[in-house]
Write a structure and sequence with these properties.
Bound molecules: fructose -6-phosphate
Strand order of the largest sheet: 3-2-4-1-10-9-11-15
Distance between the termini: 29 Å
CATH class of the largest domain: Alpha Beta
Structural class: alpha/beta
CATH superfamily of the largest domain: Aminohydrolase, N-terminal nucleophile (Ntn) domain
Helix content: 25-40%
Radius of gyration: 25 Å
Shape: globular
Length: 607
């Protein structure tokens, strides 16, 4: 996700800001920029080193702010990179998060004569403060008024020529940390960037903002009341901070699971009205009402998320869905009749087979809607409409957080489509929305069992073959669990539908061929128990993934990992998390660098 760094002190700010951005590089980004008070702003697309080269020693001054951007509103470009400013270039700010009401605010500000340079939601904040200052109020009052006007999420650092000796920071939903130095203060979106300078930090809570000088800081709430808070000391070493404290991006990204759900639903699910809105689909809404058939096409993990989507859409929105590997779809003379819609899912937005599949579908006149993580990517540009994941870059080669977001977006899309076509009852709609809102806490519960799952993984690390089996909504998770294991640990693993066991795979089962059985308390639970019995009868070892409160599997399976209860339609999102952690520990246990599995690339841009 985007990164923020700010400095106020007595040293030259620019090199400190550049190093701050470098410390945040592990988060991934597509462009970067910095502003030094009294000297100006420089931006560059691509790596921080491009920005560094452009800045040279040109920006002199001791107060400034900087940003690495991961595009959410507007393509990656210099003009869309942060920092952003008001009409006169007097207020400069960097922002993480999403301003949900930026559209209406922008329209109001344009009507009042403001001129916008970028396509971002962020720029609206600078103009809003500028507008508020026309009331003759102080800068801090104008900022506070702006914070009360904007909806959505923000981590903000702001400077202005009105008060060049100060920086302001604010937080709601996107982290902001203040680092307290000696005659200098630092700001970052992640403490890992502050640790090289000072270990004394103050974490801002949601709804708090602060005024900083080189020597002082003062926190306030949104009523303007001062808040007293002492700094705390971070124990991290500089070395530990490179991946936000984790050994691998893969684990860092698994651990983001709860926030991934929050970010995916942000601006789309109104937690007060319990309504799902997908404004990005407005342009195709008329066509969606009348579609007769959906084909979901993608590759790898993205395809498995589509398999979950297939079940959701048919169950709730009642549209026939087919699912197909993009690599097959593109070559097998598919028939795309009028009224067919294609959904492609892609983290990178550049996967060659997926791109070729949507091009073929478009050639035949289909409507193409895509779920994409990378704004500005080829598939995002070539689709008729795009639901962006809004989860920041995925760096680990094995896809984890993208899968979580893709399935979440399928759940939102299903509700949207079901409502549009009148196939979903209000009671069901509300229930699903409430369960989606409850997911982050439930995922946190699973993530808190990391150590327990590590112990289970160590028991299974010696096996060279695995079977993963699931049914209905956990059917795709059997494939995904097996894929995660094989790609990072090079262990043979097969995903199967539990109902297929008797048709072949059960022949492989013996004491050296363990099964991971997805046996959640759902409508097919009893069938799964029968499958587990059959495996046990053949001396097979069983690791079950079960629902909390289940008292049967503890005595039937060899090991059980419990996940919280949810509705069947969403259970894939909980079942997959322990399998991601399991694969991680089998892979690292065998001594492999799970971030860079052999023979694999993060973005498969060739066939
Ligand atoms: C597996 C994995 C791959 C990708 C696939 C599609 O962990 O990452 O299977 O899911 O290569 O990539 P995108 O989503 O970029 O189209």
């Amino acid at each position: 996700m985007c990164g923020i760094f700010g400095y106020i002190g007595k040293q030259e700010a620019a090199p400190i800001l550049i190093n701050g951005l470098k410390a945040l590089e592990y988060r991934g980004y597509d462009s970067a920029g910095l502003y030094v008070v009294g000297a100006g702003c420089v931006k560059a697309v691509g790596q921080v080193k491009n920005l560094e080269a452009k800045v040279g020693d040109g920006l002199r001054g001791s107060v400034g702010l900087a940003h690495t951007r991961w595009a959410t509103h507007g393509v990656p470009s210099e003009v869309n990179s942060h920092p952003h400013s008001d009409c006169e270039g007097k207020i400069w700010l960097a922002h993480n998060g999403i301003i949900e009401n930026y559209g209406e605010l922008k329209a109001e500000l344009i009507a009042k004569g403001h001129k916008f340079a970028s396509a971002t939601d962020t720029e609206v904040v600078a103009h809003l403060i500028e507008e508020n200052l026309k009331e003759g109020i102080s800068f801090s009052a104008a900022l506070l008024l702006a914070l009360k006007t904007i909806r959505g999420t923000y981590g903000l650092v702001i400077s202005s020529v009105h008060e060049p000796e100060k920086l302001y920071i604010a937080r709601k939903g996107s982290p902001i940390v203040l680092g307290i130095g000696d005659g200098e203060n630092f700001v970052a979106s992640d403490p890992s960037a502050i640790v090289p300078h000072t270990k004394r930090v103050i974490y801002l809570n949601d709804g708090e903002w602060a005024e900083l000088t080189a020597d002082t800081y003062q926190l306030y709430d949104l009523e303007g009341a001062p808040i007293a808070r002492e700094p705390q000391v971070i124990e991290w070493s500089v070395e530990q901070t490179k991946k936000g404290g984790y050994d691998h991006f893969m684990m860092k990204e698994i651990m983001e699971g709860d926030n991934v759900i929050k970010n995916s639903i942000r601006g789309r699910l109104n937690e007060e009205t319990l309504e799902v809105k997908l404004p990005e689909l407005d342009v195709v809404a008329d066509k969606l009402k009348d579609i007769k058939r959906i084909i979901i096409t993608s590759c790898g993990t993205a395809l498995y998320s589509g398999m979950v989507g297939e079940y959701m859409i048919e169950e709730i929105a009642k549209v026939p869905v087919e699912i197909e590997y993009a690599s097959e779809f593109r070559y097998r003379s598919p028939i795309v009749e009028p009224g067919t819609m294609i959904i492609s899912i892609t983290q990178s937005g550049e996967t060659a087979d997926t791109l070729a599949a949507i091009r073929e579908a478009k050639r035949q006149g289909a409507l193409v809607v895509s779920i994409v993580n990378t704004v500005g990517s080829t598939i995002a540009r070539e689709s008729d409409a795009v639901m962006f994941n809004q989860i920041g870059p995925e760096i680990g080669v094995a896809s984890t957080k993208a899968f979580m977001s893709q399935v979440t977006l399928f759940a939102l899309f299903t509700l949207y489509l079901g409502k549009l076509r009148g196939t979903i009852e209000t009671e069901m709609y509300t229930k699903v929305v409430q369960e989606i809102m409850a997911l982050p806490e439930k995922i946190k519960t699973i993530l808190s069992k990391e150590a327990e799952i590590k112990v289970v993984a160590s028991k299974y690390a010696k096996f060279d073959d695995f079977l993963f089996m699931g049914r209905k909504y956990t059917f795709p998770i059997a494939f995904e669990g097996a894929l995660k294991l094989k790609e990072i640990s090079y262990v043979h693993a097969e995903g199967y539908g539990a109902g297929e066991m008797k048709h072949g795979p059960i022949a492989m089962i013996d004491e050296n061929f363990p099964t991971v059985a997805l046996a959640l308390s759902d409508t097919v639970y009893e069938k799964m128990v029968s499958n587990i019995e059959e495996i046990k009868a053949r001396s097979g070892k069983v690791l079950a993934i079960a629902t909390e409160g289940n008292s049967t599997l503890a005595s039937l399976a060899d090991d059980v990992i419990y996940v919280p209860e949810t509705i069947e339609m969403l259970e894939a999102l909980l079942a997959v998390v322990p399998l991601q952690i399991f694969a991680y520990y089998i892979g690292t246990g065998r001594g492999y660098d799970v971030d860079k599995p052999r023979n694999l690339a993060k973005s498969v841009t060739v066939e």
